[in-house]
Amino acid sequence: MTELLRIEGLTVTPQNAPDKLLVNNVSFTLESGKTTCVVGESGSGKSLTALSVMGLLSSQLRLAQGKVIFQGQDLVGISNDELRKIRGGRIGMIFQEPMTSLNPVLTIGKQISETLIVHQGLRGQTLKARIAALLEQVGIPAGRANSYPDELSGGQRQRVMIAMSIACEPAMLIADEPTTALDVTVQAQILALLNELKTRMNMAMLFITHDFGVVADIADDVVVMFRGEIVESGPVAEVLHNPQHPYTRALLACVPDAEGKRPLKPIDYAWLNEEAAA
Amino acid sequence: MSDIILSARHLTKSYKQRSGRFGLGATLVKALDDVSLDLKQGSTLAVVGESGSGKSTLARCLLQLLPLDGGEVLFQGQDLAKLSGSALREQRRFLQMVFQDPFASLNPRMRVGQIVGEGLLIHQLGTQDERHDKVVRMLQRVGLSEADMQKYPHQFSGGQRQRIGIARALVLEPRVVVCDEPVSALDVSIQAQILLLLKELQEEMALSYLFISHDLRVVRHIADEVAVMYQGKLIEQGGVESIYDAPAQEYTRNLLQSIPGRRALAA
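Predict the joint structure of the above. Result:
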């Protein structure tokens, strides 16, 4: 039980509307070797929370309050140079769209090498060997290092992104909807790969998703966000099977189950508002 | 068989795909390889498969939005593949489509009233007043209001835009509606609303749906029958329960096992 990251009272507002709380007083912790899923609908603040951790908020937004304590160091307020050393080094990142995150005119080997050169100063044969090892680790034949992104399938591209993100053996991996754009069988493979890497490298994983099915497969802990706030958090089994907050229950009830036994029930936002007021 | 409303027989369609260095070579990709299926009146047939399986090509070929290489599409006693011009246009009124992306499929420069009413105008159904009334009633039925007629698509959320797309398709009182991934771009709570709306409208208007989807959880809830596509071929088809409970093909089993949270979220 080693605490790796602690988010305290994180609050994000637009630069020009300080009263609008896009992320409102969010606090939770991440442990090494565990996956925490942040789940919510569009606009719940789940992606902004992840971006805040990495110091990647757009200039339109402001981290109004809060601490992001990673390995004992508060990342809020440190210089961009220092942040850059941590990002891609001790913190890895994967995003939703593997095609837009990769550079189409560089080979994948070249793109993986960038992180290794910048953070670890690898050169020559050592660099080549490390790239080959990374590709094999994510299930891509080492010979594909000379391929361009358009020669790979969507799933393979996401594997390349994963290889880049774990290149420096980060202590924490942030994954923002990494399987949303993928086919369901490929999604299952990528989730299994992330799970395996997390365990083998003892990483903490912050996993952003809107899909409770994915949560059930990958999470140890769950944080449910609604309109910028955390409404419920806890171990995955408890949140899924014994949800306490009405919003969590409502969100679970509108996920179609694979057996088709449970009737679909859309979220009744008016009712939720009344509940919140009461 | 009178209860079959739309029947596809031996559909084939190939694309040329550029390949090799600089795309100088060309390979033929079979997007539809001898596909046959029947859509029963008032029911929902889901076509499932992964990207590149040919499911969207199938949707477009059925509606003659793409020309077929071969095969026939029987609807109301006619082969749609042989029709053209006004004869085809006449039938199109009864065959409508709801698209995946509610952002890309609505003209941003047209008001909602024009978008929904355009089909009625093209098919010259009713007087101007009657058309107006129909549009209003349809919008109200999908959960929008008369005032929304004056607005532009960008003033609506994704779920509301999909309601507009549904109103546009259904105002013509079609017999068959092809829904191409109608909820996959939506949040899960909005998705549930739209699925329930589609089900209600199906009963009220005696619609038959061909429902294209990659999401097997959604399909389980909306479909009566399922057809599984893989590399341009229909590899398995049958009642939704028999396919989910006892899939005959290895590929279908694999698809079903890949459903995220399958065990943990079971009811």
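The two ends of chain A are 37 Å apart (CA to CA).
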